[in-house]
Amino acid sequence: MYRNLIKPTFDILIASLAFITLLPIFILVLIFLLATNSGSPFFLQTRPGKNGRLFKIFKFKTMNDKRKKTGELFPDDVRLTRIGKFVRKTSLDELPQLLNVIKGDMSIVGPRPLLPEYLSLYSKEQSRRHEVKPGITGWAQVNGRNAISWQEKFKLDVWYVDNQSFLIDLNILLRTVKKVFISEGINAKGQATTTPFNGN
Prior knowledge:
Number of strands: 4
Largest sheet: 2 strands, antiparallel
Strand content: 5-15%
Shape: globular
Strand order of the largest sheet: 1-2
Helix content: 40-55%
Order of helices and strands: HHEEHHHEEHH
Radius of gyration: 17 Å
Number of domains: 1
């Protein structure tokens, strides 16, 4: 009952209230990113959701599109702007995903939506992370986020799929608030963002 009825209702209510409450911050970040990115402040990307269904995820864009003379993009650490670093550090880049929750593509809590090209790389067990809607935050995010290995993340994701409950979701939300304040586990070691998943 919680997974199929109560949680989806809570998701829409909480996301709607949060978006209205945080709208002034949303607008402020939008203005700063417009000024520093020399382009769109939003980053839209196709991601797989529940049962692998593809959708467009909304994020604030923290990197510019500067390219080398060859036309190739500069590495992430070069393109990550000062404002972008702050937005990532405070997790404000995830704020537009409240719209994904309101649309029904995502949940407040669930496994993070990753890249569609990873779908063919998962083991049968790892692919079970798609049995539920992806979330803005999740069990893997409060247990290491980008500072743990892909295999550890996927084990945590599948654990969440099997143990999802109101108390666990509440625990994740409270721990997420703490993680945001101490800026823990944002980047993989030695990386500006995180390393790509290349299979098991």
